[in-house]
């Protein structure tokens, strides 16, 4: 990873932070982008590296996506690895009661945001002699159904199809595209979902989720980041168009 130029969307979230920390330790230059200035500043203070850059952007707006991509090029000279990671969980509700504004938010962030990222990073990577690597954060929810979170499940299925098409388009330019598909991860998003599935009894919901995982626990942010690191690195140079669960056996 030494001297690699990396962009992470959703970079001040739990997985994004674990990933950025590992990349910086390995000598990469990293731009993290997220929606809130205060979380980016807190992340910058925590990571404390002169190879870290921050940029506030809303992935739902293509003009802002174009701006973070251009900022990365201006600061780092290009992009070698792109972690198309930003995502939201939405709400827990039956499909017929699901709030339409929340449905739109999930689609806009989890599908359109990923597409806008690909659309703007591809031309930059095509200029690289050795192409690049793009990792899209999907989920085990992209491989199976779960009741009462239909928009989230839909979005995580959608980006797998997006990845496969992008991998084929990128191959002539040595641009590799893959998804990472985590099971429940021990972070803020799962606290939100636990409370949504069992209001006031989130701890019990967590136990239920853990029992659905053969290894009987959630993933850590660092375990997900390790798979992302591998797929971004030259060690995965012949891997593209693949779906990569990190799920403790959940989809087995």
From TrEMBL:
InterPro entries: NAD(P)-bd_dom_sf, Sc_DH/Rdtase_CS, SDR_fam
Classification via Pfam families: adh_short_C2
UniProt xrefs under PROSITE patterns: ADH_SHORT
CDD domains linked: SDR_c
UniProt keyword list: Oxidoreductase
Keyword Transferase in record: no
GO MF entries: oxidoreductase activity
NCBIfam families: PRK07231.1
Family: Belongs to the short-chain dehydrogenases/reductases (SDR) family.
Name the record gives this protein: SDR family oxidoreductase
Record lineage: Bacteria, Pseudomonadati, Bacteroidota, Cytophagia, Cytophagales
